[in-house]
Amino acid sequence: MKILVANIGSTSFKYRLYDMETETQLAKGRIERIGETASPIEVEVNGQKFSRELPVPNHGEAVQQCLNQLTSPEVDCLKDPAEVAGIGFKAVHGGRVTGVQIVTDDILEAMEEMVDIAPAHNPPYIAAMRQLQTLLPNVPLVAAFETGFHADIPEANRLYAVPDEWIEKYQIRRFGFHGASHRFISVRAAEILGRNDLRIISCHLGGSSSICAIANGKSRAASMGGSPQGGLPQNNRVGDFDPYLLPHLMKRTGKSCEEILAALGTQGGLFGLSGGIGTDIRDIMAALDAGNPKAKRALDVYVFDIRRYLGAYLIELGGADLIVFTGGIGENQCRIREMICRNLEEFGIILDHEKNQACRANEALISAENSKVQIRVIPTNEEIIVARQTVEALKNA
User: Fold this and answer.
1) What is the pLDDT at residue 60?
2) Which of 122, 127, 155, 386 is the most buried (most CB within 10 A)?
3) Average per-residue pLDDT in the chain?
4) Do 227 and 124 have their domain in common?
5) DSSP codes, 1-66
6) What is the pLDDT of residue 136?
7) How far is CA 318 from the centre of its chain?
8) 381 in helix, strand or coil?
9) 318 lies in the same domain as 230
10) Which domain holds residue 80?
């Protein structure tokens, strides 16, 4: 069974194609600048890259171009698009629906209900799914919601202190996101250590970041809240923010609530704190090395918030067996890992400086031999989780 896994951005489409009989990755690719006059299209098969440029007006056409390229004589990865048994989406927010769902009109309506809460994520997924229902009517679409892994978080760990009616009627609660990544870390850590009873603090740090407390393979708490905007500072999204500051900002700036929220969602986070240096952590680190005080400020706030959640989750879990770093920053930025783990010896958390320095985006143990808590880097694989979930959903349909 061949499964295509789609990861959709506002103007991009990234994918991986798997043969799920052996869980082998057959191809991975991307299409950028969707909606512009020329969209770069790239696919990699067996280490060989193929690229071209074509106008790609929308995400539905992006998937069609992806399948065209995979079936082309040049690439020759598929004989026919019909070989794809289903398309799995790393869907973000379904509100009243979660878990893994065959895409129907009701699922799309549930996602539309949450557009105000996930404005950067839900609209492109909804548009792509609707287009694909028309373009590829015989290919099942599966939404694997990021909230699914966190669905069983205890009530005390997921509720805001809001009126009861809001909880029941409007789905106001902490949902948690990055579910596929945290689920992968839970599964992979159990494989590495040969245990299913682990207490794990999973640190997914990247363009968007979140921390998850995991016990016995299940999520117990997650830093992202009712929307992907909450929790830690993101690359350009605010993270946790006091709502009572909104009317204050509206009065002082003369901007509407929508304009303030747009600024918090596009000009906040590391970008805002650094004074606009950029959204790439490498640019901010370079500015730090050059002595830029706002780069230091951005990193100090980012690391403080990560450590704040780390401490909270150590208490929630009654300690930890393992701390995992994953995501683009977590896997690649040894200095960030060192900043997070500094002065934690009293908690049994001791980083090995040399092991940490040597680790670059590879699976590795980076804690010292006398550390009571293991510290590991585990590169995440959200796509294989979505592919597995897609297969299971199709079998149960």
Assistant:
1) 82
2) 386
3) 95
4) no
5) -EEEEEEE-SS-EEEEEEETTTTEEEEEEEE-STTSS-EEEEEEETTEEEEEEE---SHHHHHHHH
6) 85
7) 26
8) coil
9) yes
10) 2-145
